[in-house]
Amino acid sequence: MSVDRIKRIFMFVAMLLASNSGIWAQDQVECHLKADFVSDYIWRGQDLGNVSLQPELSVAWKGLSLAAWGSVGLSRSSDAREIDLTLTYETGGLSFGIVDYWSEGNDSRYFFYKYGTGHAFEGFISYNFGPVSASWQTYFAGNDYQEDDGEYQSSNDKRAYSSYFGLSASFRLATCDWEAEVGFVPWKSATYEVSSFNVTNLSLRATKAIQISQSFELPLFGQVIANPASQHFYFVFGFTLQAL
Questions:
Q1: 50, 197, 225, 240: which could join 234 in a potential S-S bond, CB 3.0 to 4.6 Å?
Q2: Which of 183, 149, 178 is nearest to 163 (CA)?
Q3: What is the pLDDT of residues 12-69, one digit of tens each?
């Protein structure tokens, strides 16, 4: 092969790499780290704890992401520690994946997966239509069983397949970012403490970033949450620390 041909091949490869540099940049793995401090830990209308620290670490590549999220109570020793692992794939407005919820409230052993485990596994699918998004979540394995007269009987208990359907809308108003959500539980579930179809979550959240310096801002948020099924009402305040 002549030197001139080698040069032409080299120049062609160099031009090809340069023209695709933007694509290569998009293929890089991204890492995100943040932590929320909340006055109460309210999840889908359920009271799960008092003042809490909730860190999150995630990595993403193209449409695939893996996140680790945790919660630890800061004011009440009875609040159970929680660690959640979420695997998500997103394409366009469609997202789906699996969540492994673990709480030491049922069993303090993390690597224990038999009957009575602290783990519960959930599949989810959601679609973002723009300002409005819809999601469906269902437990399919782990600690999620039907109750008989208020008590679990044995490892032969029927699976509850506890499910949750949520509709949320995001908008900008009066210098704040707002998010409203309504959540339904379609059938009996001990997890959500309902015996039939019920609305368990009506919430409205406002977030506003406070500029601390030219390179640092502190997002503050307030949220009102109503659970019509349990007749409970909550007001949550918090802030987020995020690594840029």
A1: 225
A2: 183
A3: 545 544 454 444 445 799 999 999 999 999 999 999 999 999 999 999 999 999 999 9
208: nearest Cα among 185, 183, 239: 239
Q: Please tell me the pTM assigned to this model.
A: 0.84
From its phi and psi, is residue 10 left (phi > 0), alpha (psi between -120 and 50) or beta? alpha
Cβ(201)–Cβ(186) below 8 Å: no
For 74-103, how does the pLDDT look when each residue is reduced to its tens digit (9 = 90+)? 988 888 899 999 999 999 999 999 999 999
pLDDT average, residue stretch 144-159: 66
Question: Can you name the residues that pair with 77 across neighbouring β-strands?
Answer: none
Three-state DSSP state, 236: strand
Q: Cα-Cα-Cα-Cα dihedral of 66, 85, 33, 73, to 10°?
A: 170
Contact 118, 105 (CB under 8 A): yes
Q: Which of 140, 237, 229 is nearest to 182 (CA)?
A: 229
Distances (CA, A) of 242 to 33, 71, 213, 232, 239: 6, 16, 15, 31, 10
Cα dihedral 22, 24, 26, 29, rounded to 10, equals -150
Q: Which of 94, 186, 199, 103 is nearest to 138 (CA)?
A: 186
d(Cα 226, Cα 188) in Å, to the nearest integer? 19
Could you give the CA distance from residue 196 to residue 60 in angstroms, rounded to a whole number?
Answer: 38
